[in-house]
Amino acid sequence: MPPLDFLLIGGLAALAGAIVQGSVGLGVGLVATPVVTLLYPSLMPGAILVVALVLPLATLAREVGHVDSRGLGWAFGGRLAGTPFGVWLVAAVPARVLGVVIGTVVLAALAMTAGSREVPRNRRTLAAAGVVSGTTGTASGIGGPPLALLYQRESGPRVRATLALYFAGGTLLSLVVLGAAGHLPARQVVAGAALLPFVLAGFLVAGPLRRRLDAGRLRLALLIVVGTSAVVLIVRNLV
């Protein structure tokens, strides 16, 4: 059983992250990952990956009919290629260097896409986003921004459902590969499972926010979450 302080602090972080992701489509990694990494580094990345596996299932239970299944096929192919590279990075690259590089890449992608009228979404861009997402998600627990940028102009239900299915499949892949490589201790899985009540509570609280964002405000919220995730990742590894 994880210590009480982890349940209180990590639970609050997971609750807040679930509220963000339940309304926007991503964000649990943004909020919970820095907290758990700073205070409980031995529980990363497994604890957050467990949370990131379960939360999308709640979204799919509500909005599965809006999934862009064709686009996800190419993104999943990229994720398959990127996940082993993420496992290698966990073992080979210092965590601080890795965090700064990932954050910088996300900010660069945000700058290139935020001002454009429409972000190209085709086989090449979806596969590339999958590769980057598989790498960053496995290595840091934050893998949503690359794919989110490609869907930033879609409707709220389509964004949330598509990202949810991608997160569920991709996170499961990351957990399996990390486990096979010996980088997923049982204590990380137990810690993640202990946070699930907070995650489900956050998803329920997000209901009113979903309705407000779906009324033409989702793209701005999505860009803010993506940009904040990159800045947090850079700052936390520089300080």
How far is it from the N-terminal to the C-terminal residue, by CA? Answer: 31 Å
Q: What's the gyration radius in Å?
A: 16 Å
Strand content: under 5%
Q: Low-confidence stretches at least 5 residues in length (pLDDT < 50)?
A: none
Number of domains: 1
Number of strands: 0
| Number of H- or I-type helical stretches | 12
* Element-by-element helix/strand order: HHHHHHHHHHHH
Instruction: Give the CA-based shape.
Output: globular
Mean pLDDT: 85
Share of helix among residues?
Answer: over 70%
Category from helices, strands and their pairing: mainly alpha
Largest sheet: none
Protein name: Probable membrane transporter protein
Membrane topology: Multi-pass membrane protein
Keywords: Cell membrane, Membrane, Transmembrane, Transmembrane helix, Transport
InterPro entries: TM_pro_TauE-like, TSUP
Task: Characterise this structure.
This protein has one domain. Helix content is about 80%, strand content about 0%. It is built from twelve helices and no strands. The chain is globular and about 45 Å long. The protein starts with a helix and ends with a helix. The model has no long low-confidence stretch (mean pLDDT about 85). Keywords: Cell membrane, Membrane, Transmembrane, Transmembrane helix, Transport.
